[in-house]
Amino acid sequence: MKALVYRRFGAADVLEWVDDWPYPQLSADSVLVRTVAGSVNPKDVLVRKGKFRHSFARDSLPRASGLDVAGRVVAVGDNVTEFSVGDAVFGMTNHFSGGVHVEVARFDRGEVQHAPTNLSLEMAAAVPLAAQTALQAIRDCCAPSEGQRILINGASGGVGHYAVQIAKAMGLEVHGVCGPRNIDFVKSLGADVVHDYSRQPAVKIGSRFDAVFDVFGKFTRSMFSGQLTPRGVYVSTVPKPRTLAGELVARLGLNKTSRLVQVRSDARDLLQLKQWIEQGLLRPHVQKTYPVTEAADAHRQIESRHTVGKVCLTFGTG
Q1: Which residue(s) pair with 108 in the sheet?
Q2: Domain ranges of the chain
Q3: Looking at the domain 3-126+285-314, which fold is it?
Q4: How far apart are alpha carbons 231 and 71 in whole angstroms?
Q5: Taking burial as the number of CB atoms within 10 A of a residue's CB, which of 76, 167, 223, 300 is the most buried?
Q6: Residue 81 CB: number of other CB atoms within 10 A?
Q7: Domains 3-126+285-314 and 130-260 share a fold
Q8: Confidence (pLDDT) at 244
Q9: Which of 237, 184, 241, 36 lies closest to 123, judged by CA?
């Protein structure tokens, strides 16, 4: 079958759309999905370059790329009762190196959910990884109470634009940080206050916060010590020695003020996102959709670090 693969680590040009990839095997607790579209995430870029190849992503080459998609169910395992052939679904694989930007992708039943009824599958593909990251960072790592104040650094990007909307849906006062060109966009998402990082870096904002979600992972908790409340929580998306250490301490129950969000696809979280989307509380923004034959350009756009919202691929297989 067709698949977006890379045979060596390197620049975006290593990506190939091939037609000889093995068809996935169905297990009792899995579903097979004929993909319509997928999104490109910073993690896709890092894995393609060989990051984590000695730790979390040790799969041999060649590999298929991609972590999240939307499409239609073509087969269900014997134990699966919540999905039927033909259902529109969206989801993310929990396999660290991905592998679902393929013609037919295999998912464990708990990694996918029925797609929002008010989105096309092309738009639904923009949701699973980035929106679940935002939800789990805010709900699970920050554990906020209604009315508390959160600062979101990187508010106009893939994870950030969902984080703004999710924080508002949870009743928080949201301060977003972005570049000058994206201020109006972040305001349109519902942010109460938007800060221009070219005028005032996030660590210099003169307000107190109950939580800081550093989507780009540029800072550390200590750099926000003057802005966070005594029990205020700093959350990063980037595994570095200091963020890994902070997360270990938090999981030991010793100090939960420095956290690392490690997203896991969960059908229950996808259901919450689906409900918010159908209620009009959450909407994906896709800057550009590329045909899969231009996947290298899509990856390069993510590498630019100036994407507004999401970048998606269409596979032409649905």
Answers
A1: 30
A2: 3-126+285-314, 130-260
A3: Quinone Oxidoreductase; Chain A, domain 1 (3.90.180)
A4: 42
A5: 167
A6: 9
A7: no
A8: 82
A9: 36
β-pair partners for 312: 39, 289
E strand map for the chain: 3-6, 15-18, 30-40, 63-64, 68-76, 88-92, 104-108, 112-114, 149-153, 173-178, 193-196, 209-214, 228-236, 258-260, 286-291, 310-314
CA distances from 271 to 17, 90, 102, 125 (A): 31, 10, 24, 14
What pLDDT is recorded for position 76? 98
Alpha-carbon distance of 21 to 102, in angstroms, equals 8
Residue type, 46: L
The tens digit of pLDDT for each residue in 38-88 reads 999 999 999 999 998 988 889 999 999 999 999 999 999 999 999 999 999
Strand partners, 177: 153, 195
* Distance in angstroms (rounded) separating the CA atoms of residues 236 and 222: 13
Query: Which residues does residue 149 pair with via DSSP β-bridges, in sequence order?
Result: 173
* Model pTM score: 0.96
Say if CB 68 and CB 92 are below 8 A apart.
Answer: yes
Question: Which tokens go with 108?
Answer: 């464990």
- What is the rounded CA–CA span in Å between residue 144 and residue 139? 7
Written as six digits, the tokens of 1 are 């079958």
- What tokens were used for 277? 């989307």
Do the beta carbons of residue 315 and residue 2 sit within 8 Å?
yes
Q: pLDDT, tens digit, for every residue of 147-165?
A: 999 999 999 999 999 999 9
Are 135 and 164 spatial neighbours (Cβ–Cβ below 8 Å)? no
Q: How many CB atoms lie within 10 A of CB 48?
A: 21
59's tokens = 């799969």
Strand partners, 178: 196
Tokens 């395992």 -> residue: 77
Domain 130-260, CATH among 3.30.413.10, 3.40.50.720, 3.40.50.300, 3.40.50.10090? 3.40.50.720
